[in-house]
Design brief:
This protein has 106 residues and is of the alpha+beta class. It has helices at residues 4-10, 34-45, 59-69, 74-84; strands at residues 12-13, 16-17, 23-26, 90-94, 99-103.
Length: 106
């Protein structure tokens, strides 16, 4: 099963990693989940500056590397770990909105 980690690691736009504003976390009906979307944006825009996602094999490895190389507090890294392990049930590409919707069951 795909997780948000595998989506962030493997999905690219024009052969570049996805950017924070492009990603929106939604439910199956397309309703955005603001909390999860904000967490993903924080992760992409802040934490991933310190590590190369392409070198990571798992969400756990990514969180461990962030523990080693960032001053981020444990509670923030725990939240990042939870969102990275969130099951992804599909992707919806919405070019008219310049978005990639990660579909979860929340």
């Amino acid at each position: 099963m795909f997780t948000i980690f595998t989506v962030l690691k493997n999905v690219s736009v024009n052969h570049q990693p996805v950017a924070g504003p492009e990603i929106v976390v939604t439910n199956a009906a397309g309703k955005p989940n603001g909390l999860l979307t904000d967490l993903v944006h924080d992760l992409i825009n802040d934490a991933l500056l310190f590590v190369n996602l392409a070198e990571m094999d798992s969400a756990e490895q990514l969180i461990e590397r962030l523990h080693q190389h960032t001053p981020l507090p444990d509670d923030v890294l725990d939240e990042y770990g939870k969102i990275l392990d969130e099951a992804c049930y599909g992707l919806n590409f919405a070019p008219q909105k310049d978005q990639i919707e990660i579909i979860v069951h929340r």
